[in-house]
Amino acid sequence: MTDSPPALQVRGLTRSYGRKAVVQSLDLQVEAGDIYGFLGPNGAGKTTTMRMILGLIRADAGTVSIFGDADPVAGRRHLGGIVESPRFYPYLSGRDNLRVLAAYGPAVTPARIEELLNLVQLGERAKDQVKTYSLGMKQRLGIAQALLAQPKLLMLDEPVNGLDPAGMKQVRELIRRLRDEEGLTVFVSSHLLHDVEQLCDRIGIIQDGTKIVEGAVAELVEDGESLEDAFLRHTAPGAREQIR
Amino acid sequence: MMERGGFLGMCLAEWRKARGRGLAWAVLLFGLLHGVAGAFAIWAGTRAEARMVAEPVDSTTWLVAGEMSISLAALPINGLALLLLFAVLWAEDFSLGTIAMVFVRPVARWRVFAAKVTVALATAAASMVCALVAGLALGLLLFGTTGDLTQIGPDTPFIGWMGTADSVFLPILGGLVTGTLVALPSVAVAGALAALTRSPVLTLFGSMMVLLADAGLAAALALWNQVELGTCQQAAINAGTVKSQADLDGIPCPDAALPERLHDLTIWSGRDFLGLRGHPEFWSEALQPMGITVLWSALFLGIALLLFTRRDVG
Prior knowledge:
Chain A is α/β, with parallel strands linked by helices.
């Protein structure tokens, strides 16, 4: 057993919009080096949870620690992420988008920017305006944005959303490479359960803002069952029977 | 070599965005055009005067063109260009969603806000400098360096006290600083509305409406004062019921300054507050309207900062 703090520890995270509780007393723990799949049906509170972890919206209650750092600004030194879809200044080049974003926070070397552009295979198109990029290229540039400050924890919300099969494969391979070669911990939310099953070590499932199950993929999937079956068993047992 | 971190780096990033959008160049070009227009306006004026007056007039000096350029650049038309820049610079980060990427970075939101204000004001100052340089350069070609400096009368706005000062440097610097300061209220209003509406279009038109409403309120109060409070000094002067300051001695007038003060708060007429008179009165005349402008700006910047730092980003 190691004494190092978990990559991400969420305790009692709560957020309501008016009277509607979107996230309720949510606890999550992601260990360093894991690829963690964060699943749930539409409206379960996944994106709200990720936004609270990233500091984009305020929690009504609860704490978020990133590698043991509970201070919101300091914690984000270890963190990079994309929520829903990456956003850019379309009139700037891919390289300039990275340069602009790099200015907000600790200094980033131009060499690091070039390294990232090459990592996401955009080196040759780096000087072109982002408005000329395909969806897959934008998604990869978004990952480069998230990696700017060499984070230890990468949070990706639907990273393959809207991509064609080749684009999905590229992003999946990139995520795996980041974990295996750069030692990143990755927290990924997706509806593509087949991808999650292939990619993730552990998963957590939430429904109605509450965690209903968390564990290693192998533990949550029963004999002969796919992750999709396991997901439906936990979140919509009735629907699963109907499908059968 | 490092990409610059820290506050300067954030300012450079904001500038890079404004430049990439093309608006920063447009604002600077607009300033330059004001300089050209200022110099030609003086040139046309002197030509017309020479035709009408039999006696030869004192020759004009190039500095008069510089003064005219600053005065023109501080007029509302340039303010509109600046407002467009501010609206886009502030609100587009929200409408594009890029502010979420910025807020994920390990930097306090108030520092991002401060960088935006700094770049907005620096661009306004640069626009003034462009106007001044263009005005002086063209003035040099049209009028030369010799001439009567006192043609810049003491009542001329911004650098009117140039003729009475020991050096022209201080009046020019003062003109640039105060000319830039008049952009502060529009930066503040645009910032608050951008953080509230998160839309460049709504920010631009909302800012214009707020500033116009304020000017309208000031006009209404001035009119009300004139009609209802006939004893007010300024109103009495405006109405032509008194002819000289001596006639006003002893007349109580507690509300006399109210419309002027409110009037001073607008981007349009706020420029009037810099209608500074001759040298000795500079500070005594500048202090009150400057204070009010700072208070007005602080109010809207406070609202903008609060919304910018506290509101959720969807």
